[in-house]
Amino acid sequence: CEFxxxxxxxxxxxxxxxxxxxxxxFYADDLEATQRRLEDAGAxxxxxxxxxxxxxxxxxxxxxxxxxxVWSAA
Length: 74
Known about the structure:
14% of the residues lie in helices and 45% in strands. The protein is built from one helix and six strands; from the N terminus they run E-E-E-H-E-E-E. A hairpin with a 5-residue loop joins strand 5 and strand 6 (67-73).
């Protein structure tokens, strides 16, 4: 499921349940720059960038240990 309001785009996807709730996926125009900024801020990449229908994404753990993801269009 995807949503957009002209300022924010996001979505939800069905997957395996994870502690802490659903996987939140953010959109970024520049996937590599966003990954570098997150790593500089202390995030740990747990799934390197990979292709999926419609784009590419990577997963990371925030400082509290929650898994999040960032995607970019193809």
